[in-house]
Amino acid sequence: MAGDKWLEPYTDIEIDKMPAKGIKNLAVVTPAFVSDCLETLEEIAMRAREDFEKNGGENFLAVPCLNDDDQWCQTVGNWINDWAE
User: Fold this and answer.
1) In the predicted model, is pLDDT for residue 1 greater than 70?
2) Which of these, 53, 31, 50, lies nearest to 42 by C-alpha position?
């Protein structure tokens, strides 16, 4: 991905602006990630929360990824079984 442009708008920049726009409560969902990783745990759950609160935000929720949720695992298993048949 070296040299490729990232999808915009950039999450960190937009989150930083939200408190000034009157957004004091924010829940962030990362649908591109099915399991938590460095981007979701460190960049969103930690750094984005800190920046949001530093800029005047009051309540921040980083919604966890699906990870090993039973229903999600069952769905993936069903997809694999369907594909294998």
Assistant:
1) no
2) 50
